[in-house]
Design a protein that fits this description.
single chain; alpha/beta; seven-stranded parallel beta sheet; five-stranded parallel beta sheet; 12 strands; about 35% helix; globular
């Protein structure tokens, strides 16, 4: 099968080539998918895209006209793909539903530890041989209350880790995981109650209509003063303006984020010589109690291996005219 891999990154190409073992003809291009770059898929059976690519209505229509029949995502999230359009036009779409929940959860913990213990500020001082300890006070995680919003695969790993720190754990999810209740003493609550009681809140939900800007002004108002907020889910799960206001009035004591609601066209590229004209991002980046990483929570050897293997597996299934259990579209049916 001829496949063009959009938004290909140098760090992932060796993993994809190893998983492919020459079965498919892969063409790697740096450009992200959009309605303008879709023409690069002419002559290909399938494309592979990443979370920053845009497979909207217009793009998918063009892909269909260019002869593309399959879209293999190299991510779990698929909010950047119009599944309704793909289904209607007969394109099959599959994702990588589980690659390494440990990678994401461990990154969330890393963000938490860094902002709590002021590691970045401390390191910046030491670089200039300033060993003053003023304003570097954090707190023990033991006996603190951690609210985990979204207790799926990643949230479950986060629960286990925070239980290991000796934390009291609250959970919020429409689908409750009773194993977490039994093994780790997680207590499910309402969203409002979780925000009122938690010292730390970590987000692990997909982006959809129900979770879009879930963390808004009203919910922030319910939070404890000085709460630490961690987001390794999707940027648009939080209302960035409301969070910045929460940081200003110290309702939010610190923010650790691997994702940003306006990251499209910014993340995954070097803008050091051309700073993005984004007042919200600039405001966040200027605050010493905010730690931003560039959507790289997934960036572990194990995760990259799993993503590559699952991506090639989906292509293998389609080439063999078989269904893949990772398919997000059901061609011939209405979503």
């Amino acid at each position: 099968m001829k496949v063009v891999v959009f938004s290909s990154k140098d760090f992932e190409i060796p993993y994809l080539e190893e998983a492919n073992k020459g079965r498919h003809q892969l063409t790697f291009i740096k450009e992200s998918l959009s309605s303008k770059t879709a023409i690069k898929a002419v002559g290909y059976d399938a494309i592979s895209i990443f979370s920053a690519d845009d497979a909207c209505f217009n793009t998918i229509e063009k892909l269909r006209d260019f002869g593309v029949k399959f879209i293999a995502l190299r991510s779990a999230g698929y909010d950047n793909v119009s599944l309704r359009t793909a289904t209607r036009l007969g394109l099959k779409v599959a994702n990588v539903p589980e690659y390494s929940p440990n990678a994401i959860a461990e990154h969330a913990v890393a963000l938490l530890l860094a902002v709590n213990r002021k590691l970045i500020v401390s390191n910046q001082r030491v670089k200039y041989f300033n060993f003053n300890l003023n304003n570097l006070v954090g707190f023990d995680l033991k006996n603190k209350t951690v609210g985990i919003i979204g207790t799926g695969r990643i949230g479950a790993v986060m629960t286990k880790i925070m239980h290991g720190f000796g934390c009291n754990i609250l959970g919020y999810d429409l689908d409750q995981n009773q194993e977490l209740v039994t093994k780790y003493n997680l207590r499910y609550t309402t969203l409002k109650e979780l925000c009122a009681e938690a010292d730390i809140i970590s987000l692990h939900v997909p982006l959809n209509t129900a979770t879009h800007q879930l963390i808004n002004e009203d919910l922030i108002y319910e939070m404890k003063d000085g709460v630490i907020l961690i987001n390794t889910a999707r940027g648009a799960v939080i209302n960035t303006e409301a969070v910045i206001e929460g940081l200003k009035n110290r309702k939010i004591g610190a923010l650790g984020m691997d994702v940003y609601e306006n990251e499209k066209g910014v993340f995954f590229s070097d803008h050091s010589l051309n700073i993005p004209d984004d007042d919200l991002l600039i405001a966040l980046n200027a605050r010493p109690n905010v730690l931003i990483t560039g959507h790289h929570a997934f960036l572990t050897e194990e995760a990259l291996t799993s993503i590559a293997e699952a991506t090639i597996y989906n292509l293998d299934c389609w080439m063999a005219k078989k269904d893949t259990e990772n398919e997000l579209t059901k061609v011939g049916k209405t979503i």
